[in-house]
Design goal:
It is built from five helices and no strands. It has helices at 11-30, 39-49, 64-74, 80-105, 110-122. By secondary structure, the protein is mainly α. 58% of the residues lie in helices and 0% in strands. Helix 1 (11-30) runs antiparallel to helix 4 and helix 3 crosses helix 4 (80-105). The radius of gyration is 17 Å and the shape is elongated. Mean pLDDT is 83; it is low at 128-132. The longest helix has 26 residues, at 80-105. The two termini are 29 Å apart.
Length: 140
């Protein structure tokens, strides 16, 4: 890291970031779950109907922003599970560009920014957006 200004990306670097972002997004979309996977998801679906952290619907810390967004999506999606899954998928699609932008703003080299963004998507606890809904809620 250094104190110098962030240099603009070259056209080759920009194309590489867009291509990698597309590939990462594709891997998330190809692995989307089609049904509930674990008990947490059942609690999350129940919480969308009746939010009560005291009774673990959902479990603490309750993820209020996640549920606020899911309630908004519920108006456009046919059931609670799919509304929660839609929010998880959208959140997972933004992690790669957000991590890349964070690393760039911290003035790391281009290669380091790309590796950090890719590693953030390969971590099992990073909210894949493909598996359980509850795995992405930590982002909120």
């Amino acid at each position: 890291m250094s104190d110098r200004a962030v240099e603009p990306l070259t056209s080759h670097q920009r194309a590489l970031v867009f291509a990698l972002g597309f590939v990462v997004a594709l891997t998330r979309l190809l692995a989307v779950s089609h049904s509930m996977w674990d008990w947490d998801e059942a609690l999350f679906v129940a919480a969308l109907r009746h939010y009560d952290v005291f009774h673990h619907h959902p479990h603490p810390p309750g993820f209020p922003l996640f549920f606020a967004m899911a309630k908004l999506f519920r108006g456009f999606v046919h059931d609670d599970f799919h509304a929660l899954r839609a929010i998880s998928i959208l959140a997972s699609l933004f992690i790669f560009p957000a991590m890349f932008a964070l690393a760039r703003s911290l003035r790391f080299r281009f290669r380091t920014c790309v590796v950090a963004a890719l590693l953030s998507r390969s971590c099992p606890m990073s909210g894949t957006g493909a598996g359980p809904v509850s795995r992405t809620s930590w982002l909120w």
